[in-house]
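REQUEST ID: PR-0412
SUBMITTED BY: lab tech R.K.
PRIORITY: routine
TASK: structure prediction, single protein chain
INPUT:
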Amino acid sequence: MNLFQFINSKIFLKNFLISVGITLLLILILSISSRYYTHHGEEFTVPDYIGKLVTDLPRISDEGNMKNKIVDSIYDPTREAGTIINQDPLPGSKVKRDRIIYLTVIAKVPEQVKMPDLIDLSLRQATAMLQSYGLQAGKLTFSPDIAKNAVLKQLFQGASIKPGTIIHKGSRIDLVLGSGSADGQIQVPFLIGKKQSEALRILAGLHLAIGTETFDGSKDTIHSRIYKQEPNYLINSFLNPGEKVNVWYRSDKTFDFDQYIKDFKIDTLTDNEN
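STATUS: complete
OUTPUT:
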């Protein structure tokens, strides 16, 4: 029997049809089981967990058998620890059964980092390094030194801090910088009517520092402006590099700074003439 005769034989046709049938049956079984396993066409809405406490959530949701898992945390002292601030997938998303919802929550304590070594770095380099460590640059003070804007000391809560010391992420590090000269005096700037951020910038640019800050009422840095300074702004009033100017604040909501500044300058000129 040659090949052509074999192909046209009943035995071959019977076996061929059986194999085709088995193949189709297997495809049908796989298709049905795949739909069942993947829950094809079955979708559930992701609940809104944002703003809720992790301890208040069920480990597994009632609908869709969805589970939650904490994957990140952020420290924020103004919010209750364990509060959910982000989730993935977002609320209202359509997902399959058994989906894991990944949560970001408020941490109980801030993350800790090692204090870097900033000594002899420039102000720009020191600021960049602090940011890379998750720290913040605090007050800048200047001390007579030939190395202008180089970090002479690094301070935390008023005391010197050594490199490698473990502190909370987000902490503010005060810096003592070189003024660029060992002598010479600087005229006291006029700070009346300035906000805290403006005063800090002006003093830093002159290699001076802000001293005692007194707020008349609440410490509202948005609306508080300087109404008094010591030393006073006078034509012949000078300070050495690194010295401090004490300031007093009032709220511009209740105080007319425009008129006050006009009167202040007139009184100052009159005093100088006398």
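NOTES: The chain has five helices and 16 strands.
REVIEWED BY: pending
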